[in-house]
Amino acid sequence: MQTLISILETKLRAALNGIAQIEPQVTIATDARFGDYQTNVAMVLAKQQRANPRQLATQIIERLDVDDICENPEIAGAGFINLRIKNDFLKKRVADIFSDEMLGVPSAGRRKKIVLDFSGPNIAKPMHVGHIRSTIIGDTLARVARFLGHEVVTDNHLGDWGTQFGKVIYGWKNWRDEQALATHPVEELVRLYKKANALAEADEMVLRACRDELVKLQSGDPENVAIWRKCVELSWKEFEQMYSLLDVRFDEHLGESAYNDRLATLVAKLEKSGIAEESEGALCVFFRDNPVLADKPALIRKSDGGFLYATTDLATLEYRMERWQPDEIWYVVGAPQALHFDQVFGVAQKMGIDAKLRFIPFGSILGEDRKLMKTRSGDNVQLRDLLEEAQQRALAMVEQKNPAMPDEEKKQIAQIIGIGAVKYADLSQARMTDYVFSWDKMLSLQGNTAPYLQNAYVRIRSIFRKLDGDWKAPAEFVLADPAELSLAKKLMQFGETVPQVLDDFRPNILANYLYELANTFHTFYEACPVLKADEPVRSSRLALCDLTARILGLGLALLGIRVPEKM
RNA sequence: GCGCCCGUAGCUCAACUGGAUAGAGCGUUGGCCUCCGAAGCCGAAGGUUGCAGGUUCAAUUCCUGUCGGGCGCACCA
């Protein structure tokens, strides 16, 4: 289904045909006084042609054929063209959206194949706050892209290969507790690592032993490889619990180790083709034509022959191109990695990789003290603990409101609210800004929060529970009350909002829209009785309620957030 | 030293990528439940968008400088 904005833009394009070559842009009006939609194309054009904008606007309006959609377009201010939607058109439009599977969201014009790299926790280490944003934002982008019709491969690039495994294996061989490994594998692996690390700092012999274990692992010693495999398997199993709780799924989870046997050949190829050159004993790729990166070469082989972070990422990239031939690859990784990705993408360009590579950075999560969020003891806050607390706090809310509800139902609802609150707090924030983590804020029923949106949904569902028997969608919507009108207009904007999320990877656009929708609905709900209204208003209002609930549900689903029927 | 990101109401955040009188929530404050969930709604107060220039019909948005904060910058990932 085409959005109204794109319909209007098409009409404008036709009106401009012969006047000028310009791509007209229509936006939702900033203020109801200026109508519903507006375009500043006359002003942009005036700039180009050094002409009078209001005169141009007049000229455009004369040729603009929107009689079936809008009242007479008005020229205002410096040369804005304001469009007011006709009531009849709005009724028809809402009816169309009501019966549209995608609720007014247009499918992507060109379907792309996208590899989406996000989450990327480290094996043998717990997932912590640092993984939240990547996981949640990445998952949302995958959901939105798929919904729009793109083909998405989600790939969890696990940190499963590194020097820490020397110590983990040493600890495994000496002190592992099988029972702990069965119940809390990652915790046990961390214990083994920490113990080995502490001992190695004090005892040269232990340090050497750990290094030996690492060398053996790297050279393919069967016993150590088997232990490492077990570590990966156990950690992944525990990660999967987290992902299941978060409702996040991956098509692939190829860790760094998956590319080990490609590193040497890749590096040899880069060296042979002259892309890489030796410098100070290491093999590097220089970017001499790029002023910013001129003194920041990408290192792909250490002077001792070992490979690096960038090497693995390049091998991964090469593999992804071979296996999936994607149009684009998206990396949802924290902002501090910007330089690294500049370098990797720079090398990729030299290698002739033609997929569009997008680095999607995000800001940090801060504690109440405005510093990186940590526990009191200075450790990273573990994801498991954080999600547990979210559910506990949500459970207390549910309990307070619905003391008589069965415990099992309370728990289910608390999970939906708690997890939803954590996700929404993240997604409703502009991607790049650091944000302060606050339980009270994210679980509040007031303001731009998941519980507020979920509550709007629940209130609507409550109406339908009260309804005896069936109801039928009206032949025609009745849009008379100002609250009905503004709700209908807001519902219409869903289809315009969802695709924007991918314009610059901004889930918060969708979050903000849903908040406005819930708000608009509440206003409608206060002003317009539904069940007590007479026909045909009653069916029309029921349909507005139903459509609102479906859009809230779908919108939240695109954010990876579920909705309860009661709360 | 260089680079990237960020400075918006007392606090936490928006602002549809250059548009009209910069918007929400919390907090402060005044109203609204014999009525579908008041976990809600309506209103008031609160701003030199860090600062100084520049570009233009129009700047929170772009450019330059500057101050403040965060994070990166050759063999960790």
What does this structure look like?
It is a single chain. With 567 residues, the chain is α/β, with parallel strands linked by helices. Among the domains are: 82 residues, Gyrase A, domain 2 (2-Layer Sandwich), CATH 3.30.1360.70; 142 residues, Rossmann fold; 83 residues, no CATH class. It is 54% helix and 8% strand. It contains 22 helices and 13 strands. The strands form four sheets. Strands 1-2-4-3 form a four-stranded antiparallel β-sheet, covered by helices on one side. It has a four-stranded parallel β-sheet with strand order 6-5-10-11, sandwiched between helices. A three-stranded antiparallel β-sheet has the order 7-8-9. Helix 6 crosses helix 9 and helix 18 runs parallel beside helix 22. The longest helix is centred in the middle third of the chain and has 25 residues. The chain is globular and about 85 Å long. The structure holds one RNA strand of 77 nucleotides.
